[in-house]
Amino acid sequence: MSQDVAQQESKGPVMRDLEPMFAPQAIAVIGASRRPGTVGQAVLQNLIYGGYTGVVYPVNPKAKSLSALRCVPSLAAIDDKVDLAVIVTPANVIADLIEEGADLGIRNFLVISAGFKEIGGEGVERERQLKKIADARGLSIIGPNCLGIINTAEEVRLNATFATHMPRQGQLGLISQSGALCTALLDYAKGRGIGFSRFVSFGNKVDVSEIDLLFALARDVNTKVILMYVEDLSAGLPFIDACHEITHGDRPKPILVIKTGRTTEGAAAAASHTGSLAGSDEVFDAIFEQAGVIRVESVGELFDCAEAFIDPILPEGRGTAIVTNAGGPGIMATDACIRYGLKIPRFQEYTLKSLRFQMPPTASVKNPVDVIGDAKHDRYRAALDAVTADENVHQVVVIVTPQMMTDVEQIAHVIAEIKSYCNKPLIGCLMGLVDVFPAVEILREHGVPCFSFPESAMRALAAKARFAEWVRRPISAYRKFEADHNAVQELLQRELSAGRTRLVELPALELLRHYGFPTAPFALAKSADEAAAVSKTMGFPVVMKISGPQILHKTDVGGVKLNLRTEEEVREAYTQMIQSVRGRLGAEIEIWGVLMQKMLEPGKEIILGMTRDPKFGPLLMFGLGGIYTEALRDVSFRLAPVRENVATEMLKSIRSHRLLEGVRGEPPSDLPAIAECQMRLSQLVNEHPRIQELDINPLIVYARGKGAVVADARIILKE
Amino acid sequence: MSQDVAQQESKGPVMRDLEPMFAPQAIAVIGASRRPGTVGQAVLQNLIYGGYTGVVYPVNPKAKSLSALRCVPSLAAIDDKVDLAVIVTPANVIADLIEEGADLGIRNFLVISAGFKEIGGEGVERERQLKKIADARGLSIIGPNCLGIINTAEEVRLNATFATHMPRQGQLGLISQSGALCTALLDYAKGRGIGFSRFVSFGNKVDVSEIDLLFALARDVNTKVILMYVEDLSAGLPFIDACHEITHGDRPKPILVIKTGRTTEGAAAAASHTGSLAGSDEVFDAIFEQAGVIRVESVGELFDCAEAFIDPILPEGRGTAIVTNAGGPGIMATDACIRYGLKIPRFQEYTLKSLRFQMPPTASVKNPVDVIGDAKHDRYRAALDAVTADENVHQVVVIVTPQMMTDVEQIAHVIAEIKSYCNKPLIGCLMGLVDVFPAVEILREHGVPCFSFPESAMRALAAKARFAEWVRRPISAYRKFEADHNAVQELLQRELSAGRTRLVELPALELLRHYGFPTAPFALAKSADEAAAVSKTMGFPVVMKISGPQILHKTDVGGVKLNLRTEEEVREAYTQMIQSVRGRLGAEIEIWGVLMQKMLEPGKEIILGMTRDPKFGPLLMFGLGGIYTEALRDVSFRLAPVRENVATEMLKSIRSHRLLEGVRGEPPSDLPAIAECQMRLSQLVNEHPRIQELDINPLIVYARGKGAVVADARIILKE
Prior knowledge:
By secondary structure, chain A is of the alpha/beta class.
């Protein structure tokens, strides 16, 4: 039990050196072939025709040469240091080949061949063997069952894949779990003129994971934006930590991800609210949110966002100026701007004056600026100079519709020129495809992001604005609260020794009290007299609830009484309650006594919860009580441990968060008090891995400054 | 006042004959020019080079010929029947030209020139004059300030625009309020290889409206799908009726719309809940919903949906089969399928058997079917034959990633072949852009919709599935309830004569009772004794509320008492209440007495409302009470009058509608009772245009079969 605590604390991420994979000086290709249509032939030809700058050794005992390269009969026959072995042989011989390579001092292997986990049966065993070899001998293996690796850097020019294209050089690094998708992405990128720095298909990830590859792209100077396609993640916190590191520092790199496979398998079996609400996709949303990763829904959106991020300048805010030569597209852009959470600020007075002076009288000088249909590049220049200088403007979108008088290419040059000295994001929206193509190429050459229509432009800019906020936000610490760790250990031992894995209210409240959660005064009374005495000390009114290890549904058996105001009432209630419960559940039911609680003032009901994801560890939940959680499923999740700002953001990510900010004349709720409970919960579940699921339901929250109180809770333990 | 009632009743739509505009045999071009870069030159050249099959008469008194055509000095000099006059002269002479043309018997004018409403000032007056002439002389005028008209039909080939492209022939008809957007759309369509049947930019729509043009496209045999870009609509109910007609019958045509300009101007000033919640965009959403028009958010989505609709076969349901040669894209497609509301059905047993028999053992025969990476066209054929025959499958998506063994073009031929005899929608998703291009062309030639990625494919298919449901749904009638029309007229007269435009609870409840709304028994008591007597007749418990024409906030002045259970309590409450109200509001405040109501059983609180949109007429609102409406703005709108199914659908279009279906063990609410109230409200506000705004808040709704009761209401009248 004790090993878990340390394991689940967040440590700095671990990097491994994959540079020999991406920039090898010598490569052995095992399974190279001359037979057309084979992977072995495709890989060898891609290496040669891709312009690889190192040496390739085809390994083939049956051929003297392949594609004009002299073959070697075996790895042992190579009289050179091999940095990377690319394997395209049948699956059943691969383990032996890797052992052989490792004996010869080769550390890096790219296994393109399929025939492993994905085919089930013997494939699973084969893959297990590969993993064992990698771990035992400290090797790096990418794959198996993947398309391969591409590095377009001029000094390397590595195409160790069986794809039909070598992509053009660019600033996008891509890692993908699906090889087939990669072929489609390469083809699509070619059609759109998009280039890549590095491109990796990592397949079954027997050894090298998406986290290792993220670091490899992060350290690559040619990669400005990281794109990912994943179907799962290897780990939770390490992924979050890696992304944290990559998206911060001097040169934060944005990470865009497509994650597919939205299933809710496994959720049905969970015993708590939290457990039943945490479908697998909610977990991924929480992880990406915490990691600062931008999740997109389609390939089009992926490349649109990448286009905006190619320009490294991040906006200082959400204020967006639009300059257009047509009204309709200006309205479309404004709509999209608002839809994606950007803002259309008013210009400062001097900007308006400058525009009024320089634009024709029929132009609209307010944001969006309509330079009208006959505008040529000089008018665009005047308008752009004015609006880029405005302090309310954080980014600028230039819309050009190719009308009769429009000198689109000249305008593109003007945009590129202004971009060269403007320190705000400036993007072109050249509407259409064919007529505007030469102008699009001009913008591309000058590194100006360029879109065909305002909708996609605004969606991408909005993602960039959110990323800018992420990068600049203050990073708060993990708070560590004083807590009685041993008392909780003892309590858990006691319950488990008694064979109880479900903690009812009394032990749950005791446990939470040990960790400093605010609980209303409570005590167990074992007789009517004791109940009366306790209530007098506590102060009226009080609530009484039957307490016993097996009694889960207290109300159903007459085991709850509210709002008792005198000792007399309490005494009477005690006797009645014991009778009623024994009447319903039988005389032999174990009763500890009656739980006496000070009756709470009414407030807003909140649920805090935790369920342990089998792969990612403790997952915290937050939601409003009652129908909001149960019927509307309006809840948010984060992996524990949570930093202070994460605990706070979590409260704002439910749809109905406005209800906590004071509506209908109510005062706002005490959000800091909720966040503190969330952090205490985070610490508790991290320090006590025996706690499998936990619901605080409800936490009663009062107005700002008045705190929150745990009213009821239940806890499920691992046996 | 009485004219409004008839006017607002829904009548059959009016069609006008615009065929001479779209297929003229002779055209006069007034303002034709030889000067390069002028609209006059561009239009003339487009007519000539576009291959127009009729006769063009350039009208120009200063030139003998233009582009090899003999000019005429004036319209009067043309010795032929001119079907259409295209005007590209300066704006100030256009009214006179139209008068002259009308004198000569020309009925149809296309005014491309700008310089009207859009420039303000004298332009507004010029436009008004055009409207006057059109109305007085029964002419049809398209424009002013537009790009013009295109008709690609072989027997016409009309390009009366100054666009730089004549689009290729196709099945899409497009009408656009923005000319500049049209140029961009044409350019984009050219790049994507998309063709059009008719293409109209209608500019300021001084005369011919989007509704007239909808009918023109509906009657055109070459147009299979109608695309619209609008910034506003000319009318509400006539638009709904027109779309209804076009989207029904033997050959329903789908209508796709981009509507921009989401403002909330004017909403702030509204006095009722309903008024303040009805921003202009909510009105358009309601109109499109009622019209069966598919609203899209971007140009990309517009053409994606159009692509799916080119195939006229509508699916019988939402069950979607996916056949793929790669796992990742299959998962993406499944995700998108679910996201857009489609379903992934299980196959029938015989389908599974057939697939198991024909596919290799590593293939996945469940939906989505993975034919795996080495699949060639024959395996695709076997899989497609099996799944298209499955009764659970209503549409099929074929995903092809261009892998090494993939014979993409052969597969495209197989898809086209199966499409030719399959009576279900079948679409291709050929992933990429460049390598797959020849195969895409094969699918296009055979009329098979084709997409680059699963996301856009599924979004478009989902739109089509919704359209199929729209086309096939039973159309219910407008219900007409018995109501005491005269009593309401008298009540309204009485209140207005007394100078009151805000009806407080008592007259509002009376008014609603005249229209058969369920109200709890109520009566006005003018003394303590009367109150006691009334309550005895009514039955206890009762609610008492102060009633007077100026008393709006009853609770604040001690004017509400709940749950009174004896005559004594009632008597005492009466005296106290009168004292309290006079104490707070002054002795001179007018008090009618105390409104006595039978206390209602608790139920779900609902708001029904109506606000009159200045352009579109009465707009009905529906929402849950309290925070759902006020803080969460979770409401739905429809234009009155509403048919029975519209009233029902309206209840289902709020986000939190599940709360009415019975959650946490509650019985479902009485939706038919709410819908009936909505229809009564529809009838009431249609028959009494003096009612400007109305809130029934709350309507208390009980379990299915137990009805609903109006608890409170207020009404605002037009002076």
